[in-house]
Amino acid sequence: MNMESLMEWAEEEETSSVQADKSYTQLETVQQMLLERIEGVCNTELLKIYIPRGSALIWTLRHEHGWDIDTLECDLHEHKNRQVKYVYNGRKY
Ligand SMILES: [Zn+2]
Fold it and tell me: Where are the domains of the chain?
């Protein structure tokens, strides 16, 4: 193995661990928001804090954490287009 390919390998390692860390933090952020905001968390608010795939995180919370979360039409803001908000109802188990 020459020096160059060793460097590439090291860089790949770093990138993958950083990404895993980031998605874990995003999940925790969404959990925290759902717990604090009984009126619901709007999808656009997740976008504002750089969480573009809120629906994927909600799916994970529902299926892997047993959270009961409703997807409703957002009535927290005046949206031009239809937007959803996520409302936490408690844990199923
Ligand atoms: Zn909204």
Answer: 3-91
Q: How many Å lie between the centroid of ligand 1 and the Cα of residue 27? A: 19
CATH number, span 3-91: 1.10.10
pLDDT per residue over 12-71, tens digit each? 555 555 555 565 689 999 999 999 999 999 999 999 999 999 999 999 999 999 999 999
Question: How far, rounded to the nearest angstrom, does the alpha carbon of residue 76 sit from its chain's CA centroid?
Answer: 19
Identify residues whose C-beta is under 5 A from ligand 1, the ion.
42, 74, 76-77, 83
**Cα 4 to averaged position of ligand 1 atoms, centre (Å):** 49
| Strand, helix or coil for residue 15 | helix
Residue 86 Cα to ligand 1 middle (Å): 10
Q: How many angstroms separate the CA atoms of 3 and 22, rounded?
A: 29
